[in-house]
Specification:
This protein is mainly alpha-helical. Helices cover about 65% and strands about 0% of the residues. The protein has 8 helices and 2 strands. The radius of gyration is 18 Å and the shape is globular.
Amino acid sequence: MIIMALLTFVTLLFENVPYGRYATTRYGFLINVKFAWFVQELPAFFVPVFLVFFTSASRTSHLPNQLLLCMYFCHYVQRSLIYPFLIRGGKSTPFASFALAFVFCIYNGYLQTRYLSHYAEYPSGWVTHPAFILGGLLWLFGWLINVHSDHILRNLRQPGETGYKIPRGGLFEFISGANFFGEIMEWAGFALAGNSIHSLAFAIFTMVVLASRAVAHHKWYLSKFEDYPKSRKALVPFVF
């Protein structure tokens, strides 16, 4: 996955991920955004469910593994079973983006939960280790920021309104990509707590994709709105 992240990084230097405001038919026919989000994210939930509950998942009896799996499931229950049905409006998703996301969710869902449920071994007392505690806190605050920022974005438009507006509130007062910042923080915390190449690779891939998207959004807002706050950064408050 780290190689995948490097290839993705190079690709994103020349092209935005083609969904949302950057959607185009160059990447295939368009799919309803709610349907696309729901179906493409489902494997990230159901593949892990199968691995944890229907295979000989010998490591799930250990507390560190249980807590890390809970972090993973907490994100994807919200992302796959709740988030798609809260979307208001939104542009349709090109088939290529939908298909790539679907395949990634199968692969990553298998990679993360297969390791945690079958192979990951942690030293005694790992849940009280500073790395696990700090990682868990980063994951929690990142998840809360991500969910809250998505809520702000959903409620920018009143019923019947169309078009884009400047996000206000929460971390959007400081950065254009508050939702992306939250998710990057979330999986960085997961990687720190999980202490594995699998979780680190996922965190790196997430950072590459979402940092690129945050920068693209920031440039787009600046070009579209003359009154866009000039003090806002793209992704990291006060820094970048």
